[in-house]
Amino acid sequence: MYKPSDDSFFFAELLKDYISKLKNKDISYLDMGTGSGILSETAKNCRVKNILAADINEESVNFVKSKNINAIKSDLFSNINEKFDLITFNVPYLPKAKDEPIDSQLETTGGKKGDEISLKFLKQAKEHLNKNGKIFLLISSFTPFNRIKKFKPKIISRKNLFFEELLILEFS
After folding, report:
1. Is 136 exposed, middle or buried (0-12, 13-18, 19+ CB in 10 A)?
2. What pLDDT sits at residue 52?
3. Partner of 114 for a Cys bridge, out of 40, 95, 138, 140, CB 3.0 to 4.6 A?
4. Higher pLDDT, residue 144 or 151
5. Could you tell me the end-to-end alpha-carbon distance of the chain, in angstroms, rounded to an integer?
């Protein structure tokens, strides 16, 4: 299970700010790749009522359920039929490293180049987004951007870390 790190806290702050500015908190929210559930918890603490957390990792799903948040096991949208007003995904975004242990690749590796999971997600996500809905996707400066930019993202936040820059992208 992915433990919260700099990227998680950065994303949670953006989500908190975004939700706090909404006039109507009665939105449907999907926390894709929930991991520790930090984004779902942030939404819950901001009084969002309709939250669904999804993860491919059963341990993450059970952990988030233990916090009284609706969670399901799903490989991206494989077990999700609903539409949402807001979808977030702190996607595994790093290119595959030869020396990385297989058990941690699920949490950090976005594919051979690093953008494959993001691209697969973006292709599927539009079908699960309500009219006027938003998608927020967190990637790294290590994630190739050429194919992602075909989806016309807007960079809404950046954070420089010691070794990389984190970007939160918005898709409408």
Report:
1. buried
2. 98
3. 95
4. 151
5. 29
With beta carbons less than 8 A apart as the criterion, state whether 54 and 45 touch: no
97 phi, psi to nearest 5 deg: -105, 135
Query: pLDDT of 48-91, one tens digit each?
Result: 989 999 999 999 999 999 999 999 999 999 999 999 999 999 97
Give all domains of the chain, ordered by start, each with its CATH number: 27-112+139-171 (3.40.50.150)
Measured between alpha carbons, how far is 43 from 12 in angstroms, rounded to an integer?
9
The 10 Å CB-count burial string (b at 16+, else e) for 45-69 is ebebebbbbbbbbeebbebbeeeeb
CA separation for the pair 150, 35 (Å, rounded):
27
Beta bridge partners of 87: 30, 135
The Cα-based distances of 47 to 28, 104, 124 in angstroms read 12, 33, 27
pLDDT tens, position by position, 19-29: 999 988 899 99
